[in-house]
Amino acid sequence: MKKWVKAVMACFIIAVIAVCITFPILSYTNPQPRLWAVEGDDSITAVSFEEEINSLDMMENTWQTAVPQTEIYKLVKSHFDAPLADGKTEKKAIVIGYDGCRVDTFRLLENSKESGINTLLSDGGHAVFCYCGGVNYPEKNIQDTSTAPGWCSMLTGVWADVHHVTGNGQPKEVEPRTLLLSLVEDKVIDSSAFYVSWNGHFTKDNATYINEKHYIEQNNINAVFLRAGNDIGTERNVLSDLNGEDCSDFIFLTLEYTDHNGHGTGFSLQNPKYVNGFRNADATGAKFIEAIKARPNYKNEDWLILITTDHGGLVKSHGGPSFEERITFIVSNQEIIK
Ligand SMILES: [Zn+2]
To answer: Which CATH architecture group holds 34-332?
Structure first.
């Protein structure tokens, strides 16, 4: 064999070996959700975003009167602060987050088989338009429509001018505390749990809640911060908690199906992969609600169940000021607008 042929073959073999070794290591150290690129043909022909959301008859307000996403904080706080209703022995709350879920996905609900949102609404629940970015559209937003600022505003009840998380990769100081910390530390509840798969929440050095996680560990506060490799892992962690005899009093979780599909293939009802991302997220939400209703002590527990998102999306991105990124939603088993 000629020398140059041998050299080419040797290079090829070395390249194959390098890929075989490197890829599993990268996959292990940086696991990504594997189900985001689900194939499907379940898309709809969309008209304009405004027309789509104006046609949603389950909403109790208009997008012009959308509530701020900081309302999530108030709803959870006031649920735990209110006295127990007759016959109830314990309060519980869960916030089910569908990351990057546009509100026009609600157009898909009439054809949803398993749907957390439909489950809440058919049980007498409530749905409202919500906004992210600090002020309602079309006024210029004061914080990015990004993941970290959005969830942080819901968990702390304030905007980025106070919590200072203006983007991803900016660790929040311990103050202002999230509900996961403050409710337990102030002895309003006994336990809380934060279930995610995105590594930007609390597992990287520059993650949003890394300081709060360290504070919780150092002070033996009964709050669990647990990250799984993907949404299936998050589902398993949440169900394991909900199926426990004494589940966490407050559970906050995020699912990445919609956000990953949006970034990968486009935030649009006309994109079957984004539609499938929504279907996956909402079917998972339905499983959580079923698990809550199946709890042996469910009759005596007073549950607040919220489904929401951190931002919408436009084309393959979010963070900006557009209508599609700014208007979101809250669905609840209890009244939102009193
Ligand atoms: Zn997000």
So the answer is: 3-Layer(aba) Sandwich (3.40)
* Residues 258-281 pLDDT 10s: 999 999 999 999 999 999 999 999
CA of 317 to the centre of ligand 1 (A): 10
In the structure encoding, which two tokens stand for residue 67, read together? Answer: 């509530």
Distance 208 CA to ligand 1 centre (A): 13
Measured in angstroms, how far is the CA atom of residue 198 from the centroid of ligand 1? 9
pLDDT tens for 120-133 read: 999 999 999 999 99
Nearest C-alpha neighbor of 77 from the set 151, 159, 188: 188
Report pLDDT for 20: 58
3-state helix, strand and coil shares in percent for the chain, rounded to the nearest 5: 40, 15, 40
Q: Is 115 helix (H, G, I), strand (E, B) or coil?
A: coil
Q: Which two tokens stand for residue 192?
A: 């809380």
- Report field, pTM of the whole predicted structure over 0.90: no
Distance 149 CA to ligand 1 centre (A): 9
Chain-centroid distance of CA 284 in Å reads 12
Q: How far is the CA of 144 from the centre of ligand 1 (A)?
A: 11
Q: Residue 315, SS3? A: strand
Nearest to 158 by CA among 136, 132, 176: 176
Nearest to 287 by CA among 337, 321, 253: 253
Q: How many Å apart are CA 274 and CA 258, to the nearest integer? A: 6
Q: Are 98 and 146 in contact (CB under 8 A)?
A: no
Residues around ligand 1, an ion, CB closer than 5 A: 99-100, 147, 259, 310
Distance 215 CA to ligand 1 centre (A): 25
Spacing of C-alpha 296 from chain mean position: 27
